[in-house]
Automatic annotation (TrEMBL):
Xref: InterPro entries: KR_dom, NAD(P)-bd_dom_sf, Sc_DH/Rdtase_CS, SDR_fam
Transmembrane intervals: none
Name of protein: 3-ketoacyl-ACP reductase
Matching PANTHER family: NADPH-DEPENDENT ALDEHYDE REDUCTASE-LIKE PROTEIN, CHLOROPLASTIC-RELATED (PTHR48107), RE15974P (PTHR48107:SF7)
Stated family: Belongs to the short-chain dehydrogenases/reductases (SDR) family.
Domain of life: Bacteria
Example GO molecular function: oxidoreductase activity, acting on CH-OH group of donors
Length: 286
């Protein structure tokens, strides 16, 4: 199970230098842009933070509780020659989004960072298995709180500081649109699947609502990805064989696979792509 970051302000530490932007041949305009990745300290979030750093963004890495993981991500950004900052907030709680943006605002003011937010990646999320019979109200609410409510209100705050040309990428799942046989790999996960279907719907509505403001909104729907979140079943021999055989490409996805798609969606090349849910499952069960 993986989830995103926390509730109280934790000093947002800026790291890195300027050499990276010259090495990557980024313009000074792009090099001053700020991106926020929720749940950015591990797995897909960490890979996405690195991808954005490669593109020249200053990356705000949000985390819930694992400061060490966030520091490791910042170290990786620094090794790339990029710049990053860590912000702690618990999005499971009502004041989590406020805490997140209070921390971001403080970092902007103290460290002379851009006041605008050019990219938001809503990556933080949680997946809890359970059949209709055994899913408790608590498990249902936990998934919808983090996977839907936090996404909605994080985006609400983000767009108030997002200029024309801004990018929003939501993390969905292949399970939002595919139902598998009873007793199969993903049959007992309907609450999670429904929460990701809600993300797909928000993506399409926001693309229409924010289009006149020049903001592009898309979602990425991964299939099985080898992360700590999936380790309990995907890193077993049987789980690996099952998931590998389900893809025409004959392997399981990696965080870098998903980060590459997100990288396209935040790049200038995606300016005519909006309201889309991009399948990044490796052709899972075509």
């Amino acid at each position: 199970m993986a989830e995103a970051t926390g509730s109280l302000f934790d000093a947002a530490n800026l790291v890195g230098g300027t050499a990276f932007f010259k090495e990557m041949n980024m313009s000074s305009t792009q090099a001053s842009k700020l991106a926020l990745v929720t749940g950015g300290s591990r797995g897909i979030g960490r890979a996405t933070s690195y991808e954005l750093a490669r593109q020249g963004y200053i990356v705000a890495v949000h985390y819930r509780a694992d400061r060490a993981a966030a520091e490791q991500t910042l170290a990786g950004i620094r090794e790339l020659g990029g710049r990053g900052l860590a912000i702690q907030a618990d999005l499971n709680y009502p004041d989590g989004v406020t805490a997140l943006f209070d921390a971001l605002d403080r970092a902007v003011a103290e460290q002379n960072l851009p006041a605008t937010l050019d990219v938001l990646v809503n990556n933080a999320g949680v997946a809890d298995g359970g059949t209709l019979d055994d899913t408790s109200i608590e498990l249902f609410d936990r998934q919808f709180t983090l996977n839907v409510k936090a996404v909605f209100f994080t985006t609400q705050r983000a767009v108030k500081r997002m200029p024309r040309g801004g990018r929003i990428v939501n993390l969905s799942s292949v399970l939002s649109s595919r139902v598998f046989e009873a007793g199969g790999d993903f049959s007992a996960i309907s609450a999670y699947a429904a929460s990701k279907a809600a993300v797909d719907t928000l993506t399409r509505h926001w693309a229409v609502e924010l289009g006149p403001r020049g903001i592009v909104v898309n979602a990425v729907a991964p299939g099985p990805v080898d992360t700590d979140m999936n380790a309990s079943w995907l890193r077993t021999d049987s789980g690996r064989v099952t998931m590998t055989s389900a893809s025409p490409l004959g392997r399981v996805g990696t965080p870098d696979d998903i980060a590459g798609v997100i990288g396209f969606l935040v790049s200038p090349a995606s300016q005519w792509t909006t309201g889309q849910v991009i399948d990044a499952s490796g052709g899972y069960r075509l």
